[in-house]
Design a protein that fits this description.
InterPro entries: Prot_inh_I78. This is Peptidase inhibitor I78 family protein. This protein is an alpha+beta fold. The chain is 19% helix and 17% strand. It has a single domain (2-89), classed as Trypsin Inhibitor V, Chain A. The protein contains 2 helices and 3 strands. It has a 3-stranded mixed β-sheet with strand order 1-2-3, with no helix packed on it. The chain is elongated and about 75 Å long.
Length: 90
């Protein structure tokens, strides 16, 4: 007898409208890499003498990186000689 009650319930569930689409979250970043363009061309020794906002990471050639995107994170890319070649958020 129970199997006769399950079939109509499954059919009704199949007819239910799909849930509304989830709107993507709008991410507002306060990271401003343009304010750090003055560091491009300087040696990495500048990191010991300066204060930077968190989160921040220094990316060296060949270094493994996580692929997570953090719009608040300030990234400094270095070349083989330890010179800052790029500053960006992400």
């Amino acid at each position: 007898m129970r199997q006769f009650l399950i079939l109509p319930a499954l059919l009704l569930a199949a007819c239910a409208p799909p849930p509304p689409p989830v709107e993507p979250e709008v991410v507002v970043s306060t990271c401003d890499p343009a304010g750090y363009d003055e560091f491009i061309g300087q040696n990495e020794e500048i990191f010991a003498r300066s204060t930077f906002p968190a989160p921040m990471r220094i990316i060296r050639p060949g270094q493994a990186l996580t692929m997570d995107f953090n719009p608040e994170r300030l990234n400094f890319t270095l070349d083989d000689s330890g010179t800052i070649v790029q500053v960006y958020c992400g």
